[in-house]
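Researcher: Let's do a round of design. I'm pasting the structure tokens now; please hold your answer until I've finished.
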């Protein structure tokens, strides 16, 4: 990459001297733009965040691996299917309104819907989308709200990198236009070449910044995976503790039942003892009466 940057700078300097090198430089810029698009396409498909490209009717035009995992199907099988099929009936109206707003406002739109995925418990997700390419389709990110505290910042950074790809392509187009104009403006050739050098340095600087961000994303993804593992461990511990509490409650209920039964038994015995005491008192009085009768 460093060697390619030096070659580009050298070609711009040659451009200041000889107009014939212009066509070669234009071709170089086209190649760089294609390579830049390929790099961001790879980032799109390898990102841990779910990304979709949707048409105006909600059909899936493109989807990355994470998005396919969320919907529980292969990427190839999901293309050209309606995203709304995975949205619950109660949330489908919200989703349809969300798609319409994206293509009307051309601004970032968000909504929350419930997804129904075969074999999974229904879960709520947050969708963020924006129209691209003159409103012919839109980019949509999907975040499970159960994990939003861990991935919200990461999602913003990934989305920003993807959206900067379009800005990068626009910038490359502008450079090509400027270079074509240089062919017809011989007197202004040196000034235009200087502007191209500055623009190229800016592009190189942006590449370095994006490389740093990519490294930060890798670290953030590793941390996210670790946190998810810890969360799963804690969930397992809570399930075990709940089972133990339920078992203890069952034992307490048994003991309470035994105590209630024992109390009833004691009360019954007290009642029996009272009856016996009354009978003994009557028998004692009877004996005394018989004794008095014998004496008389």
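Researcher: That's everything. Go ahead.
Model: Designed sequence:
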């Amino acid at each position: 990459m460093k060697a390619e940057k030096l070659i580009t700078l050298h070609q711009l300097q040659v451009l200041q001297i000889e107009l014939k090198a212009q066509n070669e430089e234009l071709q170089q810029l086209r190649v760089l733009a294609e390579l830049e698009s390929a790099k961001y396409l790879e980032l799109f498909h390898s990102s841990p965040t779910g990304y979709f490209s949707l048409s105006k009717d909600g059909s899936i035009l493109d989807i990355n691996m994470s998005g396919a995992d969320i919907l529980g199907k292969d990427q190839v099988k999901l293309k050209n299917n309606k995203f709304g099929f995975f949205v619950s009936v109660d949330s489908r109206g919200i989703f349809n309104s969300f798609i319409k707003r994206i293509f009307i406002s051309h601004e970032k739109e968000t909504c929350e819907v419930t997804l129904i995925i075969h074999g999974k418990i229904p879960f709520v997700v947050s969708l963020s989308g924006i129209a691209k390419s003159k409103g012919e389709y839109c980019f949509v990110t999907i975040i499970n709200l159960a994990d939003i505290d861990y991935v919200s910042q990461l999602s913003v950074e990934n989305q920003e990198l993807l959206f900067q790809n379009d800005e990068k392509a626009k910038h490359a187009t502008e450079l090509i236009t400027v270079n074509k104009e240089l062919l017809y403006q011989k007197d202004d050739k040196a000034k235009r070449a200087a502007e191209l050098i500055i623009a190229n340095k800016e592009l190189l600087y942006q590449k370095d910044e994006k490389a740093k961000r990519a490294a930060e994303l890798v670290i953030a993804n590793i941390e996210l995976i670790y946190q998810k593992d810890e969360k799963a461990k804690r969930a397992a511990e809570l399930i075990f503790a709940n089972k133990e509490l339920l078992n203890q409650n069952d034992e307490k209920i048994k003991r309470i039942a035994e105590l209630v039964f024992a109390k009833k038994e004691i009360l019954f015995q007290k009642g029996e003892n009272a009856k016996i005491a009354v009978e003994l008192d009557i028998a004692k009085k009877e004996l005394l009466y018989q004794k008095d009768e014998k004496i008389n």
